[in-house]
Amino acid sequence: MYVDCSGDVDGSLEAILDILETYSSSDCQLHLLSYGVGNISESDVEMAAIFNGNGVIFIDCIKSNISDSF
């Protein structure tokens, strides 16, 4: 599974990354495409689409054209 992770503040993003780091499964491997603090960009969506990935988003407000893509 490919994941793009974004958060609204550094502390919440760090907590999410810590949890993802503990993920372990023989059925599915987790690959972190990118991560960062701030809004989701069109390039984040495009990167996730290339790898058929998922977005893990912890942000209060997302632009409508971006939210429709995930």
Could you explain the architecture of this structure?
This protein has 70 residues and is an alpha/beta fold. The chain has a single domain (2-67), classed as Translation initiation factor IF- 2, domain 3 (Rossmann fold), CATH 3.40.50.10050. It is built from three helices and three strands, in the order E-H-E-H-E-H. It has helices spanning 10-21, 42-50, 64-67, and strands at residues 2-7, 31-37, 54-58. The model has no long low-confidence stretch (mean pLDDT 79).
Name of the top-level CATH class: Alpha Beta
Kindly report how far apart the N and C termini lie.
Answer: 15 Å
Structurally, the number of domains stands at: 1
Q: What is the string of SSEs from the N terminus onward?
A: EHEHEH
Q: Overall mean pLDDT score?
A: 79
Largest sheet: 3 strands, parallel
Q: CATH superfamily, please?
A: Translation initiation factor IF- 2, domain 3
Strand order of the largest sheet: 2-1-3
Quaternary state reads: single chain
Number of strands: 3
Q: Would you tell me the structural class of the helices and strands?
A: alpha/beta
CATH T-level fold name: Rossmann fold
Query: What is the overall shape?
Result: flat
How many H/I helical runs?
3
Rg of Cα set? 12 Å
- Our estimate of the beta-strand percent is 25-35%
Helix-residue proportion? 25-40%
